[in-house]
Each structure stands twice: as C-alpha cells, then as structure tokens.
Amino acid sequence: MNNNAGPAGTPLLHVDRVTVRFGGLVAVSELDLDVPEGSIVSLIGPNGAGKTTAFNCVSGIYAPSSGSVRFRGKRLERSFTPGTILRALAVGLLTGLLFAAAAVDVDRLWMAVVKRGMITGEPFTMSGAMERLRGYFRSELAIDQMAGKWRVVSADGSDVLAIKRDLGEARLVRDALQAKVTARRTGPGTVPDATDLNQREAAAAPLVALPVVKEEVLDRLAAGKSRIRWRGWLGLIAGLLLGSAGTLAVWQRGRRSPHVVARAGISRTFQNIRLFSSMSALENVLVGLDRTIPGGVFSMLLRTPANRRAEAEARQKAIAALDFVGLSGDANRIAGQLPYGDQRRLEIARALATGAKLILLDEPAAGMNPNEAADLAGLVERIRDRGVTVLLIEHHMNVVMRISDRIAVLDHGTKIAEGTPAEVRRDEKVIEAYLGGEG
Question: What is the mean pLDDT of residues 370-398?
C-alpha cells in the first residue's frame, strides 16, 4: 500500500450526504465521502451495494435525489450566467417568431408575400415582398389566381369577393372594395394608418361595376387588421415565453450532465467495457480528446491551420496515453481485436488523455487473472504518481489492500465503514457484510 495521501484541507472530491432514489428504492443513502488530492480511494462492498450508482452520481449520469457533490470546492454543475439568459431569450425569440407566423397562418403568409407576386407577374424584390407583408398585416385585400381567372380575396384568402377574367379589371375592383373597407375601418375610436388613407380612396367612384358585398363581410374585413395583429402579437409573446422557459428547463436538466463533469476534470471507465470496437486503439483515445479541438464543424471542413495544429497535438497526447498504459505498439490495431486486459488498459488510456485530475475506475481488474490484476495495480499506482487522483471500485481484495490510501465500504447503499486498509480489514461490520470472516 502507498501512503502518499493528498494534502490536508479541502478534499479534491467531496460527496456530502448524497442519496439516490429510483422510485421507492433507495440505491444510495446519505453517502459521505472525501477523496483527497493525490490519493487512491477505494469503494468496496457486496454486489448491489450501490457502488456503481455512487459512481454514476459523481460522473453526472444520475442526479442525486438529495445531497451534493463538490469538486475542487465547487458544485459539479454549470453556473447560471447572463449568457444563459441571453441564449434562452434568443431561442424564445425564434420560437416566438415561428408561433407568430403560425398564428397569422403561415400558408396564407406565403401566399400573400411570395406567391401572389409570382402569379400576378411582378418581379420578386425585397421591397415588394415587404410591401406585400405590410399589406397582409394591414389586412388589405389581395388578388390570387385560380382556374385561369383572377380573384379578389381577403388578406387570409377566406373570402372571395369578386372573380374577373382580366387582371387589370381585378385590380380596379380590389382598389374600390379596399376603399370601402378603409372607410369602415376609420370609424369612431379608430386611428387609421397613413397607408389606409391613400389614393385607393379615389376608387370610391369606380370605373367598373362592383360586386355586391354583404355589410357583415365588410365589417369583418374592416376588423381584420386588428384581429390579425392581435393573433401575431399573442403568438409572438406565447412563443417567447414558451421557448425561453423550455430552454431554461432543458438547461436545468442538463446542468449536471456527464459532459459538464468531464469538462470540470473528472473522467471514468465503466464496469462493462465501452470501446468503439471497430475503431483503432488510437482512434478510441482521440474520441476522448475531441472536445480539445477548437473551431467546430466548419473548422474541420475547411481544415484551418489552427484545426490542423490542434489535431496534431491531440494525436501526440493520444500516443503518449497509449504509451503510458503499455499499448503504444497496438495504436493501429482494431480495439475489438485486442485481448481483454488490453481493452481495459485502452479505456484507462482514453480517460487519462482527457487531462482529468480525478479518474473513476469501475472494476478495472474484473475478469483478470492474478498476474494481470497485479500489473493493473501497478498501473493504478503509476497513475497516482503522475498526479491523478483515483477513486476505485474493485472486488479483487489483494489489489484494493495493496494500493488504497483509504477504503470506504458500502452495504445496501449505506456506508458502514471507512478508513485505512488495516482499519477496514479489522472492522467487524465489514467482516460480517463483505469479507466473510477474513481477518
């Protein structure tokens, strides 16, 4: 056993009264655990004692039902910053615009702004599209085409007021009817837009015969501007609130996700090997270094100088990690073809390559013979000697007793003992629950 425990004071990892519940089942109950920097701390106990659940809680896979996990004195979760609010508002604004478009009928909006210009032969320009958009929100009458004839319709297309064979004649009818609608819109208590009082009112004495339009239809068309604007504003506000609240809810759920924990400086391996079996050993390690390459997708597509330099540095780190665990000669071998023990080492190499300050090893010696387990114990000690703190789950008691600075024992989710290997070995509760009477 190596007694180079971390310095006194604030531990690197502090698990404070953590409880994890799954429905009515309590998998971990009020677990307290300190992991000093530069030490190897082992978590042992019978199968089903809650060891892996505790690991999953530390690594962000599970959220604790109660209690807290602190790393370097800080909670393992993203901080709430002004940027968080700004991103939520940006998503909310986009959602609000989509809701507003849906509220005012996006199909009719497309018809009014784009398609009507096409069917009337007008060239598409931004100014023309904006003018048609303003017309839609002013609930002005419009012209569309069906079966080779021109129709004068309401802004949303729900009312067909006239059908003409000639486009020019349809425009005259539209202008004349628009003047009638505008006259009703400028009634008592209504302040019209300047655009409502234009030359179209001169069409009040039309040169063409106007169709008979019922008074209630004219009233509804006159009220259309207010209706469509209220629908748009309500859609915008509802989408803004829903989008912002939804973004904050998603952010809260991912506040303590595994990638947040990994970025804080914690990495782990799993009880069941989780490698990309069809990729090479080197590629598996490079996966753990992907977040260290800046620039994102566009930088990779453009192969910028910064991207190439970062990839070269990541490759060097990956090779160094493989060399550290003794797999430098197998860098180009397919991971699934490596012997079982080497696959375990490859997982450790990937975890180390991330630059983690704390590594969680979940039964790394599982399935190994005594010689392989002894070699692995030496590797864990070398990891500690290079300045990486280790939290270990292991059933090989020879390995645990040899390398651990401290040991915590779980039984049915509750910590029943903690201390040095010698202290734990003599503890009566441990002997009864786990060691089966070994002294």
Answer: 91
The answer on 49 and 164 residing in a single domain is no
Q: Please write the tens of the pLDDT for every residue from 232-277.
A: 889 999 999 999 999 999 888 777 788 888 888 999 998 888 899 9
**CB atoms closer than 10 angstroms to residue 414:** 15
For residues 206 and 231, membership in a common domain is answered with: yes
**Which of these, 155, 163, 173, lies nearest to 222 by C-alpha position?**
155
Residue 92 has pLDDT above 90, yes or no: yes
pLDDT tens for each residue of 284-295: 999 888 777 766
Placement of tokens 């029943």 in the chain: 416
Q: Do the domain assignments include residue 329?
A: no
Burial 374-402 (b: 16+ CB within 10 A, else e): bebbebbbebbeeebbbbbbbebbebbbb
Percent over 70 (pLDDT), the chain = 86
What's the domain count of the chain? Answer: 2
Same-domain pairing of 21 and 74: yes
- The full DSSP string for 114-134 is IIHHHHTTPPP-HHHHHHHHH
Flag whether pLDDT at 162 surpasses 50.
yes
CB-CB contact of 131 with 147 (8 Å): no
Q: pTM of this prediction? A: 0.66
Whole-number Cα distances in Å, 171 to 44, 71, 149, 159, 288? 85, 72, 13, 16, 66
Q: What pLDDT does residue 346 have?
A: 94
Please provide the DSSP assignment of 317-372 as one string.
HHHHHHHHTT-GGGTTSBGGGS-HHHHHHHHHHHHHHTT-SEEEEESTTTT--HHH
Per the structure, the complete domain to which residue 429 belongs is given by 13-78+256-265+356-435
Q: Are residues 64 and 147 in the same domain?
A: no
Residue 300: its pLDDT value, please? 67
Q: Are residues 127 and 219 in the same domain?
A: yes
Contact, 45 vs 428, CB < 8 A? no
Give a yes or no: residue 297 inside a domain.
no
* Residue 274 half-sphere exposure toward CB, CA atoms < 13 A: 12
What is the Cα–Cα distance from 134 to 140, expressed in whole angstroms?
9
Mean pLDDT (the chain) is 82
Give every strand in the sheet of 66-71, ordered side by side. 25-35, 13-22, 66-71, 74-75
